Amino acid sequence: MITVRPGSHMYQVLRLLSVSGEFPSSSLGILGDSRTVKAMIHKMEAVQNIKLSSSGSILTSRLFQISGKGNYRTVRLNKNALAVLNEIHPDALSSYLALYPDNRFTGDRMRIGRNHRVGEALAMCMMAEIEFAPYILPELQKRTILPAKPKTSAYYLARNFKKIYEAELNKTVFTRVVGLLLHPSGCYAVYNTRDAAMKWSGLGELKARQELSEIVRMNAGQSEVSSAILFGSNQGVALQTLIESDKSREKQVRFDRIYQNIHFIPMDQNGISLLKLLASPDWHENLMGALFNLNMRPTGFGSIEYDAYWDSTYYYSHIDSDIARLIRFSEALKSQNKPFEVLCLNWQVEFLKKYLGSAVRLRQLDIEIIFKALGMK
What we know:
- By secondary structure, the chain is of the alpha/beta class.
- The protein has helices at 9-20, 34-43, 92-99, 109-127, 158-162, 169-172, 203-219, 235-246, 255-258, 269-278, 283-291, 323-333, 349-356, 367-374, and strands at 2-3, 22-24, 48-51, 58-61, 64-67, 74-77, 154-157, 179-183, 186-192, 227-232, 261-266, 308-310, 313-317, 340-345, 361-365.
- The chain contains 14 helices and 15 strands.
- The strands form four sheets. The chain has a five-stranded mixed β-sheet with strand order 7-8-9-10-11, sandwiched between helices. The protein has a four-stranded mixed β-sheet with strand order 12-13-14-15.
- It starts with a strand and ends with a helix.
């Protein structure tokens, strides 16, 4: 007899699929130990007796099913086991059926790829303790201005804001944005490039940012969306994205001109920790305060990107993995003959060495030490 218990791997996968519909088998490591999660799913592909505490009945069914090959191998809920979603939330089943009528999915590879990008972003948010379920979050609207800022972090899928008004769909239909993350101190447009370099579509993304800015102005008491999160499989994707941006002939629509800050987050345990940091209240000021004394911080605007100055050395922090700002820092280095030291996390070192070369010194920090300094778990 199997019981769905909050906090278990089964519960996590169910909660994820209740929103994403399907999830790539290759990315199950986001949810914890990959072997453990895959073993659980394999077990639940066989018929099991599942106790439904919400109704007191016993469900006899396969819970999960896996189909497809390679990059398109996908995990879905078994049609006969949909009642188990009532164990997640009273509205989870009705919300799921509204999104996926009769539990049917297309075999189109482009659609599966899109669903996988969406699912991975959801999984990252779930593991970072960011609420994402549409049956729990308040709906977005464009009728009146709601000035209250969110008290906790919330992640909205692109389909949640693309359909506020059908007439607005043409502004975002061609963008690759997969979601919008609201947190107490700001917001992010969210993208997921998986294992390919992100080649930004210029004006399409600019129009999407303008539409998202209107949504956060109406719903979250914030003036605009000026920052983005870019998920990717590893730091090599970030490097290739920067290389591709350097080749752009239209600098005015280059991604670092569309969003002032773009935080690259690898889809692994390191990325989950970073996402927790970026979604915490006043994270930037708190981080700068933990890293540098107040008398080291710059005042006003300068000609170069830096975070602190002390003893004839300029200090720059890449702990937030902001690749848009890193471009500006790299460009400034070409015209400066000053000593620089870059603060980074241990998993960022090889990427920074390849992108910045030997022009700067690197100082590694551990995310656990930073979390402790910020009073975070």
